[in-house]
Every structure is written in C-alpha cells, then in structure tokens.
Design a protein that fits this description.
single chain, alpha/beta, 7-stranded mixed β-sheet, globular
C-alpha cells in the first residue's frame, strides 16, 4: 500500500514537473516571438523605437529598411504570400496607394479616437504616428560664396546659381519625392499644368535624384551639392553631426506629410502586428521622438513634443493632402514625372 502511494506520488511529482516545464517552454516561445517589419525609416531612427517595443512586450522585431516606394512595390509583389507583417514609416501617400492596391488590412488601435482625423485613414487601414516636415537644407559655405540667402520659396530653387547643385529624391523609389511633388502641386493651387512646368524648370538645376529621401544629405553637408529637399529628421541629423547647413521651409507651404503604420493583409503574425500598431499609436512610442531628437511631431495629443521640431513646424505652412485622391493618382503622377520631366 505504501509502495503504491509512493509510486503515485512520484508520478504526480513528475507530472507537475512536466507541466511546469511545458508552461516555461510556452512562456519562452511567446517571449521569442518575432514580428517582421518593412520600414522606410533609417535604422538610426527606427531602431530605438523597435527596441522600445521589445522592452515593453518581449517581442523581437526583424526589419528590412528600404525606401517607401520600394516598400510599396515589394509588399504588392508579395501579396499572395506576405513576408512582412507590418509596414512602418514613410508618408501617407504610400499607405493610401497600398490601400488602393488592396494589400492592407484594417485595424483601429485603442487610441484611435484621440488621434486627429487628418492623421489616419477613415476606414482604419493605416494610422499616422508622426507628422513630418519637408524642408530645404543648404550648405552654408555655398551661400556665403555666392552671396545668397537661404532658399525660402519654391521659386528660389530655380535661381541659375543652383544649376547642377540640387539633390532630391527619385519619385520611382522614394516617398519623399512624392511629398515634394504634392507640395509643389498644392503650392501651385492644385494646377497640374503649373506643377509640370515648375518640375521641368527645377529639373534643369538638379545634380542628382537619389534612391532614398535622405540620400542627398551627405553631398550637401560636404559641399558636393549646394542644397536639397529632405524631410526634417535627415536634415536635423545632419546638423546635429556638426555640419554647417541651414534648414528652411518654403513660404508657399509644404504638403502635410504623415508617417504611418499599417498591417499588411493576411500577415503571418496578426496578433503581434496589432500589438505593434497599438504601441506605435501610443505615447509609449511617440514619447521617444523627443528623447532621441528624431525631429518629427507625435500625433497622439498626450505625447511629449520635441521643442526644436515644434519651432520648425511653427515656421512652416502645412497644406492638407487629400490622401484618397493621392492613392488613386500616385502612379499617374510618377509616370508623368518620368515621361515628361526627367526624359
């Protein structure tokens, strides 16, 4: 009898041990889960945000950095077998085009109602986590040499002094380039004929069209080019490295660019993707912009605002973008730029 009791006790003990071990393995598996992300943000800007998510949730992020145009092209090509769960960063027009292409699935995070309507898709296909600003960044030595003031108008970039001296992004690959085109479009009163005419004149002063939006920052910083059209994070990062550059905004205004996040349709890790969107739309992530000097403005009203970015934003004129229209016309605008401007 005592032997039977002992055998049962040993069995029960082993069973409890096995259950504890299984629970530990399950917890470990959860902790080891990985979210796959395509991002248009440079690694130096994205990594601290992704690290914050991992610290908060234990979920690892594997990411590939590419321009927003490449991100859109790749996610579209993989629509039948998506390799990424989330698209992160890049202007709202990229996400409007992705929605139009049918490669996103809707999800509204808990903070949805707190984020202003113009920072999100009304159907929940994407949500903006930051407002970004398009700027001119000019080499100060060039300005002194030529006796010029920093450019403060789109018209200033047509000055013959800038012939062969401007770097800006390629619309075939970069969302920054689309923001540039939209900025000019709205600055010209939404007149496509004037948009085309201006772009042809600007093309005469272009030194190089870069694959990514920030590709021209180093040449401008080093004096290999005079000026460029960039988003504020790349320009601020250049100045923070000690380069003598001047950051200005065109008085006619710039398209209000949102940095968005979205879940790719039929992701392999849907629940993890939803957790990430919750994080991106919350102060937990958006407070990190000020901490790391990212240069963008948070969309959540309770998030901390970087005073330097706020001051630049106050100096700028933002023009509201109809993202539904952009989603339907983005491809046409790019084709027009390729066929009638740069050829």
């Amino acid at each position: 009898m005592s032997r039977t009791w002992s055998t049962r006790g040993k069995f029960a003990g082993r069973l409890r041990h096995a259950l504890v071990l299984a629970a530990a393995m399950a917890a470990s598996a959860v902790g080891a889960q990985t979210l796959n992300v395509y991002t248009a943000w440079p690694e130096s800007l994205a990594q601290p945000l992704f690290d914050g998510f991992t610290q908060q949730t234990g979920i690892k992020i594997d990411f590939i950095r590419m321009s927003s145009g490449e991100m859109l092209t790749r996610a579209t090509a993989e629509r039948n077998n998506p390799r990424a769960d989330v698209m992160f960063g890049g202007p709202g027009d990229t996400y409007a085009a992705a929605k139009e292409a049918g490669i996103l699935e809707p999800y509204k995070p808990a903070s949805w109602d707190k984020i202003p309507d113009h920072f999100k898709d009304k159907d929940g296909y994407y949500v903006g986590f930051a407002a970004n600003l398009l700027v001119f960044m000019t080499n100060n030595a060039f300005l002194k040499e030529k006796g010029l003031k920093p450019p403060t108008s789109w018209a200033d970039l047509l000055d013959p002094a800038y012939k062969g001296q401007i770097q800006t992004a390629d619309a075939r690959t970069s969302g920054t380039a689309i923001t540039r085109i939209l900025s000019i479009y709205y600055a010209m009163g939404s007149d496509e004929a004037k948009l085309l005419d201006y772009q042809k004149k600007l093309h005469a002063n272009i030194q190089s069209y870069t694959k990514a939006g920030g590709g021209g920052t180093v040449p401008v910083a080093m004096g290999q080019a005079a000026t460029g059209i960039f988003h504020i994070p790349e320009a601020m990062a250049t100045r923070q490295k000690g380069y003598d550059v001047v950051i200005t905004t065109p008085r006619e205004g710039v398209a209000a660019a949102i940095e968005a996040v979205a879940i790719i349709k039929n992701p392999k890790n849907r629940e993890l993707a939803r957790k990430f969107v919750e994080y991106a739309a919350s102060p937990a992530m958006q407070n990190l912009f000020a901490k790391h000097g990212t240069g963008v403005l948070p969309t959540h009203p309770d998030a901390i605002v970087d005073p330097t970015a706020a001051e630049l934003a106050r100096q700028a004129k933002f023009m509201r973008v109809d993202l539904d229209w952009v989603g339907k016309n983005r491809k046409r605008l790019v084709e027009q730029w390729v066929n009638e401007v740069i050829r």
